[in-house]
Amino acid sequence: MAFRTTVRSISLWAALTLCMLVSIHGVFLDAPRERVMGDVQRIFYFHFPAALGCFLAFGVVCFASVAYLWTRERRWDHLGRASAEVGVLFCTMVLMSGPLWAKSAWGAWWTWEARLTTTLVLWLLYVAYLMIGLYTDSREQRARAAAVVGIVAFLDVPVVYFSVKWWRGHHPIVLGRGGEGGLSPEMWPIVWICLATFLLLYGILVGLRMSLARAEDIVLDLEETLQG
Amino acid sequence: MAYFHGVWLIVRKDLVSESRTLERISSMLFLALTILVIFSFALDFSRRQVADLAAGVLWVTLSLSAVLSLHESFRLEREDKALWALRLAPLDESAIYIGKLLANLLLLGGPAVLTLLLGGLFFNLNLAPVAGSLALVLLLNTLGFAALGTLFAALSSRTRRGEILLHLLLLPLSIPLILAAVRSTTPLLLGRELLAVTLWLKLTVIMDIAFVTAGILLFEYLTEE
Amino acid sequence: MSLNLLFWAYTLIWILLAGYLGLLGLRQQALTRRIDRLRARLEGQIAGRQEPS
Fold this sequence. Notes:
Chain A has one domain. By secondary structure, chain A is an all-alpha fold. Chain A is flat. The two termini of chain A are 33 Å apart. Chain A has helices spanning 2-30, 44-71, 74-106, 114-131, 139-167, 188-227. Chain B is mainly alpha-helical. Chain B has one domain (2-222). Chain B contains ten helices and no strands. In chain B, helix 3 runs antiparallel to helix 6 (93-123) and helix 3 runs parallel beside helix 7 (131-156). Chain B is globular. Chain B starts with a helix and ends with a helix. By secondary structure, chain C is mainly alpha-helical. Chain C has one helix at 2-50. Chain C is rod-shaped, with a radius of gyration of 23 Å. The A-B interface holds A 69, 121, 124-125, 127-128, 131-132, 134-137, 141, 144-145, 147-149, 151-153, 155-156, 159-160, 162-164, 166-167 and B 148, 151-152, 155-156, 158-159, 161-162, 164-165, 168-169, 172-173, 175-176, 179-180, 183, 199-200, 203, 206-207, 210-211, 214, 218, 221-222, 224.
């Protein structure tokens, strides 16, 4: 049984390492040099998957939140917590790489365009989500409170995005399709590879974090039983 | 019918308890005034054309001072364990939420109107022609803010240091509300008519619907012991 | 300059990842210590109960 788990974890880590190697090789050696921005555009190959992964993570938080309120099973709380942490991690990656790319491509560290602004608000929201535990007294309270916040925060995301988009509508700065961030067809396979890598990374990190949360929960149960 | 009676009881309870000390109204008003003064130094009202900034300054001021008032909205329930007693009453949690929401709407709206008038004074704005439109914008945005605020205040009042949590949760979530509020108010203050801002008002209405619904559905989970 | 930014962008990703995994590792260490303490207490309790009175 222990051996099976070891084989599984080794194979997962090996798969991740291989994917990363293939991705990096693809990004730097196969991907064409972008006409307008040059090599800096290669940031996009992890910036975009990180953003998608972040969005996926927070969607999972919302799902886990609903599931927890519905079933009150602790594993949904663990999933929500784990996914939120990984989501914040990916979000940080997006927020750090965005300005680096923007500075090189457009000369400004920050523009208040819809996507990056929404990501910033997202970061604030889910860091607040992670801090809820500091202000609640019991695990149950924290789980319930976090679940409510997890749902409302995710519902707020499209609202934030569209309101910022309407606000900034007249600005021509656009990332992604159309405008300067346009992808040529030969770039797409590499984007897919990087997306797959990030998906795998997300899965492994969430799995790790969840098992840690489960273990901490059990230890807490034991400690409380011994004290009582 | 009993449902609405319950809602009314809660609204009346909150208003009556506030009328004894006027604590929430006065502290929100005082903080708003202070923030307005700080802004006037930071942005140097005397030397520049500020009409275009007025809406932004006012809504930031209102948001920050409102959080203070919102945190107090459940303090009595927490301290006297009154929330527990409320739940024992044959009253649906959503009725408690709506009652609290309406009470907060009034207790936030009053100081908000006064702050708006003060802003008109400080910024030398002509509010009279757009008073009705401004009232509508104020109502819609305060409703959304109060909807979120009432929900999260139930969460933040659990612990004394929870006030920070209310700031951390409510302010980022209200960003689209504040944005829409400023976008709706600025044209009005610059003399345009209501028709110019209908798009932003529609967004505000959608947000109000979403936040109030979320509050009604999720409030019960935050009031369990 | 743009290559410099590109380098830092990729490096930051690795640093963030390593940082997070390191944090998880630290939490796991703390957990292991708590488990050891628990085990010691349990053994102490069991031993205490088996003491001939």
